[in-house]
TrEMBL record:
Annotated protein name in UniProt: ABC transporter ATP-binding protein
Record flagged with keyword tRNA-binding: no
Residue span, ABC transporter domain: 10-230
Gene3D superfamilies assigned: P-loop containing nucleotide triphosphate hydrolases
InterPro entries: AAA+_ATPase, ABC_transporter-like_ATP-bd, ABC_transporter-like_CS, ABC_transporter_ATP-binding, P-loop_NTPase
SMART domains: AAA
Nucleotide-binding listed as a keyword: yes
Molecular-function GO terms, alphabetical: ATP binding; ATP hydrolysis activity
Keyword entries, A-Z: ATP-binding, Nucleotide-binding, Transport
Organism encoding this protein: Lactococcus allomyrinae
Family: Belongs to the ABC transporter superfamily.
Amino acid sequence: MINSILEKKMKITNLAIKFGDKEVLQSINLQVNKGERIAILGQNGSGKTTLLNLINKTLVPTAGKIEDEDFEINNQNRCYIMQHENLPSELKIKEALYVLAQSPENFEKGLGLAEHFDLTKALDKRFSKLSGGEKQKLFLISAIQNNPEYFFLDEITTGLDYNSRDELLSFLSEVFEESQATLFLVTHYIEEALRLCNRFVVVANGRITQDFTRDELVQTNFSLVQFDRLQIGLTEELIDEKTWTYKILKDKMPDILETRYEEITRYERDFVRNLGEIISD
Ligand SMILES: Nc1ncnc2c1ncn2[C@@H]1O[C@H](COP(=O)(O)OP(=O)(O)OP(=O)(O)O)[C@@H](O)[C@H]1O
């Protein structure tokens, strides 16, 4: 079953886009298997959201092509969630799930998901009264109730505190464990990419400069500093001393720079996560 899904491919060739005179993406080449969960990483302004929007057809490229006949992405089978989504402030969660459900059965599924993910008590709360984490959960549930095959998630945990982010990531991990959906996730957070994705691509200088599967990361004994390189999208020669993450870690926790990500302690992990937040803000 999984094999037959993975045989379905999307092929992106020499994709480029300009905004006015500004060439944001110049030559993107990427082959995606259906069912992959891809983290799109890179510095601010590198073109991650633009790439996401080209793949989900919100934007039209100025050159190149996307061959995605095997995928058949449309408004019914995709969900697209961004940072700081909004709904009318007076709408209650239950009403939002109802309005956004594609059928009565899907609405029932939404209510079941709300119960499963501890939102039952909040069903009668108005949108304006929800916390940031509750809002993002609501958007995810309202999308998941419609059984999407494709997820386009753009910095959905930015601005959430540690506990809300942790909860949302557990929620999403559970969703993806039980589904064969394809995910494109734009994020600045190492933790988020590692928890949700099985492939990591970095966009820099209008191109994809790195492309790793999870297995490749594990086989190379990937350390934190290497992941930081990936995330920031610089080549080995340019990196070390020039990144803030590296400078701060070197100063505060020199030992963990070469420690394998899985082996660092919870405290160190939180430190790095907070550092990631400071840097990307
Ligand atoms: N509609 C638009 N019109 C003009 N310029 C745009 C438009 N959309 C994006 N850009 C520019 O394209 C570049 C890439 O933007 P994009 O949002 O894709 O980057 P990003 O990697 O997602 O950034 P961030 O990490 O800050 O969210 C930026 O310089 C941005 O200003």
